[in-house]
Amino acid sequence: MRYNLLHSGVSFYHEKGYIADYPEGRDWIQFYVFDDPIKVWTAKGFEETTGPTALITRPGTRIWQGGIDLGEWVNDWFFLDPKGMEEFCNVHYLPLDTLIPLVDTVPLKHLIRRFQEEQSAQRPFWQEMVHGLIIEFGVLLARACHQGQTTPSKNPSAIHTESLRRLRAKMRADISKRWTLQQMAQLTGLSTSRLCTLYKAIFHVSPIEDLIAHKMEQAKILLGNRQTSVKAVALHLGFSNQQYFSRMFRKRFGRAPSELAG
C-alpha cells in the first residue's frame, strides 16, 4: 500500500493570538513537529509542551494549537490520506493524540521539506519517493518514542544556518526597508525569540544590531563621497528620523555624519 501525501507545511509561522481550533477535527491524519513551547489538545485534554515535540492527530479528533500565553508559534506539518495509516502507526508503535518529546527536530523537519519539494516538482515517481520518505519519518519518530530521542543530526543547525544566511543577505540587499523582528521571523519560519537566539549563536550579534551596523558602514561609504546629504543617506538606509540616524552614526564612529557629508 502506498501512503498518499495530501498537504505539508515547512516552518509555518503563526502570529501572536492565532489559534488553530477545529472542534470536529479533520478528515485526514496529521503529523506535527514543534520546536517552540506550545499549548495543544491531546488525548489528555489541554497540554503545554516544554521543548521540541511531535504530535500525530487521528481523523475526527479535535485540533487545538496555540502559542503559550497567546504568543507567536511555528510548526512543521504534513497530512496523509488516513487509508492504511492505522496499520502504519501500529507497526511503528506510534501513539496517536499523544505528545512525543524530541531531542532533535532537524531530521524530521528535513524530511517534511523533502515531501514538499517532491510534491511541488512532481518529477517521475515522486509519489513513490514520498512513500519511502514517509516510512523513514515513521522510523525516526518510532526511535524518538522508544529510545528517548531522534537520530542525532551531524549538524543540528544546518537548516537554520542556511535560512538565517538567506535572511541576512535579503536584509542587506533591501537596505532601505525598515525591517522588524516580526518580518524577519516570518521569512525564516521562526518565532522572534528563537530567531534572536539562533541569529546570535551564528553571527554573534542580534539581528537588529547586525542590520544597524551594516547600515552604518554603508552610510560611512556614502557620506565619504561628499556628494550626498545626511538626510538623503538616512532616507536611503530606511531611517525616517534623521536625529536617530545621526545618534546611531555618532555612537558607532565617534563623530557626526555631517562631518563627512558634502
Detail the topology: elements first, then pairings.
Layout: E1 5-14, E2 19-22, E3 29-34, E4 38-42, E5 45-48, E6 53-57, E7 63-67, E8 73-80, H1 85-91, E9 100-101, H2 106-121, H3 126-147, H4 158-173, H5 181-188, H6 192-203, H7 207-224, H8 230-236, H9 242-253
Antiparallel strand pairs: 1-8, 2-7, 3-6, 3-8, 4-5, 4-7, 6-9
Helix pairs in contact: 2-3
What does this structure look like?
- With 262 residues, the chain is α+β, with helices and mostly antiparallel strands.
- The chain is 45% helix and 19% strand.
- It contains nine helices and nine strands.
- It has helices at 85-91, 106-121, 126-147, 158-173, 181-188, 192-203, 207-224, 230-236, 242-253; strands spanning 5-14, 19-22, 29-34, 38-42, 45-48, 53-57, 63-67, 73-80, 100-101.
- It has a five-stranded antiparallel sheet, covered by helices on one side. It has a four-stranded antiparallel sheet with strand order 2-7-4-5, with no helix packed on it.
- The protein is elongated.
- The protein starts with a strand and ends in a 9-residue tail after the last helix.
Return the string of H and E elements: EEEEEEEEHEHHHHHHHH
| Poorly predicted residue ranges | 149-156
Structural class: alpha+beta
Residues in helix, % = 40-55%
Strand order in the sheet with the most strands: 1-8-3-6-9
Tell me the overall shape: elongated
Distance between the termini: 73 Å
Compute the number of helices.
9
The rounded Rg comes to 23 Å
The main sheet comes to:
5 strands, antiparallel
Average pLDDT works out at 86
Number of DSSP-assigned strands: 9
The percent range for strand residues is 15-25%
